[in-house]
Amino acid sequence: MADSNDWNNKIIEEFRANAGKLGGQFEGAPVLLLHTKGAKSGAERVNPMMYQAVDGGYAVFASYAGAPKNPAWFHNLVAHPDVEIEIGSETVHARARVTEGSERSDIWERQKSAYPGFADYEAKTDRVIPVVVLEPAS
Length: 138
Hints:
Elements: H1 2-17, E1 31-37, E2 44-54, E3 57-61, H2 72-79, E4 82-87, E5 90-98, H3 101-114, H4 117-124, E6 131-136
Antiparallel strand pairs: 1-2, 1-4, 2-3, 3-6, 4-5, 5-6
């Protein structure tokens, strides 16, 4: 697990040092930092992830690279839907909402079209990959 945390920490540091701009495999990709509370621990967690701008917010994808289970951050969002997101140099308070039906499929299809790696993740798993919309709180 330390390797994953180290990798995330390097991305977080680069993100913050460059107002949200990343190089390497994420160069030019829309990436945000999602702050959640641990579902059990209540501890703050920060995860970098790709997003898609949608009407009224930002969609994120619990793909977990096609693993058979959802990522921990998804369980955190379900337990504690009030979150913060960092986009560029701005921090926004938001509320997470898991999408369903045509809303989910429309967003998911656009993501797979724009970033085919997401189609690869879908092919690796039997689960339906959750699509979560983060709606800025007023």
